[in-house]
Amino acid sequence: MSLLVARGLTRRFGGVTAARDVSLSLAAGEMLALIGPNGAGKSTVFNMIGGQLAPDSGRVALDGADVTGLPPRALARRGMGRTFQVAQTFASASVLGNVRLALLVHHGHAFDLWRREAALFRAEAMALLDRLGLAAEADRPVAELAYGDVKRVELAIALAAAPRLLLMDEPTAGMAPAERAGLMRLVATLAREERIGVLFTEHDMDAVFAHADRILVLLSGRIIADGPPEAVRANPEVQRAYLGAAGLRAASRAGRPAGRGGAA
Ligand code: ADP
Ligand code: MG
Fold first, then answer.
1. Is residue 216 lining ligand 1, measured as CB closer than 6 Å?
2. Which domains does the chain have, with CATH numbers?
3. Percent residues over pLDDT 70 in the chain
4. Closest ligand 1 atom, residue 37 Cα
5. Residue 88 has pLDDT above 90, yes or no
6. How far is the CA of 156 from the centre of ligand 2 (A)?
7. Residue 229 pLDDT > 60
8. 46 C-alpha vs ligand 1 centroid, how far in Å?
């Protein structure tokens, strides 16, 4: 069974139909990229799945249960996680403190952090930081970290809730290319090893073609392509409408291991 199934999601803003009859499915351990030009409707679809925005019509199911219209907190309890921006972390607190707080909240101990249980979830938090390559930064305030490390702290906070489905809206926005590749590699590894389904939007085509198992292309609120990277790259409508054939070939070649991008 698919982890996530969306059927016929539609949302209008005044005269604009931001998403029209959008359907998608996502399996455990799968990386699904949602791409399209600015204004295509990516964030609208994302927010309808994440519970920030109610659809005008259509349904969302998680593990076969209808979750349409549930608020983000209810979705989080059912295993849907989401990365948030820097402002959502406590920048003056340490990396370890932020991750411990996320673990405490997940386990229903939010108030204990400020009491005596200084060791509570410390080992779990360190294990998670180690997994993300952040162990050496554990005691540093988040405010002191390089931008790429802050993004990894955001990921650690999301993972503290042990999500089975992770939504990431432009996870690499503002990052340098080398940092972007590193973060996407890390997310892809976690998805496969922990069997987390990941739905992400992304502007960087290198990151998309290197790490997505499947790509969904939106144009003016409609899905115009849904398939593995090779098929999407070869889709004439995608090339015409969105990326331009040359740009898409270059992007997909740059993002894939040698020998896999040469056929296009
Ligand atoms: P993307 O994330 O792909 O850039 P969006 O989902 O943000 O696209 O936007 C899709 C369309 O819906 C755009 O035309 C945008 O102007 C419009 N739109 C999105 N959110 C709102 C809103 N809250 N109010 C009015 N129009 C919106
Ligand atoms: Mg957007």
1. no
2. 4-79+163-253 (3.40.50.300)
3. 86
4. 3
5. no
6. 23
7. yes
8. 11
39 lines ligand 1 (CB under 6 A): yes
| Angle (deg, nearest 10), helices 147-159 and 95-106 | 20
Report whether 264 contacts 233 (CB < 8 A): yes
Rounded distance between C-alpha atoms, residue 142 and residue 153, angstroms: 8
Burial bucket for residue 71 (CB in 10 Å: 0-12, 13-18, 19+): exposed
User: How much distance in Å is there from the Cα of 29 to the middle of ligand 1?
Assistant: 29
Cα–Cα distance measured from residue 213 to residue 61, given in angstroms and rounded to the nearest whole number: 21
pTM of the model: 0.88
